[in-house]
User: Fold this.
Amino acid sequence: MTALIRLLLVLALAAPPLAMAAEPPQLDPANTAWMITASVLVLFMTLPGLALFYAGLVRAKNVLSVLMQCFAITCIVTLAWVAVGYSIAFGDGGGANAWFGGFAKSFLGGIEVKTLKGSIPETVFAMFQLTFAIITPALVIGGYAERVRFSGMLLFSLLWLLLVYCPVAHWVWGDGWLQKLGVMDFAGGLVVHLNAGMASLVAALVLGRRRGFPETPMPPHNLTMTVAGASMLWVGWFGFNAGSALAADGAAGMAMLVTHIGAATGAFAWMVCEWLRFGKPSVLGIVTGMVAGLGTITPASGFVGPLGALAIGGAAGVACFFATNYMKRALGVDDSLDVFPVHGVGGILGTLLTGVFAASALGGVGYAEGATMGSQLLVQMAGIAAVGLWSGAVTYGLLKLSNALIGMRVDADDETQGLDTVLHNETGYNL
Assistant:
């Protein structure tokens, strides 16, 4: 009997350990605290950041209309996100997962206090992604500012969120087909900037120029307001990019560092270009260069190092400066607040350069196993083509539909009088 017991002990000790069941995800308080903070920062980018930035750029008679549009978009996108938007973007989608998230999480079904997304509550993840969904259609209003009906803008923004933004977010971030293809878009070069930029370009072309453009000068009415809004955008962008790490870790720290470098380099490069070309640097130029630098570093922020940020920010300042001047002066396209030449061009450029500066030899995180710089660039190009074509085509259809149902553009007399009085019965200034 004793010999049998000894034999069993020897066999037990010699046998490989039984595979332990995978531990369930655990909530990380530090990650949760950071993601709550990042969500606040990204919402701060729209209200009041983008609202003030855009409002200062339009004429005084339209300042309230832009503030109202940003505020109303925040409300309507929130309601749509809760109803079906989050589910379309981040639901599992069943067999159609590569293209569409489905409706299983409509009205945030299944999300409770203890439900986790990785190491953070899914409530926090849903809120963080909601702030991205808010700012993207808010960016688009820069393409048709000073000439759009408020009711038409609301309908178009709602449809655009559900049929353009949410599907693209699923493709790139929700385990969709572009993510499976290997597209690198850390914080929204495709999902936010190219998406919004292409929509703004199409809107500017479909709705036509503002009355008097380009013969009549239409300078910003309050650059102080614009600089204040731009400063808020710079600060809020740390939540936008570093928060996309979804953790308080080294990746978030590097994303924050390269975001700041990209913004500063983009602003400086634009200022130098303007100084050399026109003889004087402008406040409007330096803040626009900052936004260009931020938008261009966004897709790369989790994949590149400081060297890549310097190169990407510098390229953004130069490329977006010339794109802005070319569109207005050579092509005569009235993208009122330069959304496509800044965000669209920046999103394209940043997405491409991510495929270059992600290389470990250039200080980046490196490529997926088996991938090379050449193959990654092809994947990045595929992402740009897919998002650009989808956003452009669907935006065109939605503008035509909204125009047929409600009407998108105010008449000539109302545009001359100003949208603040005509649409909201208020004025921004009582002097």
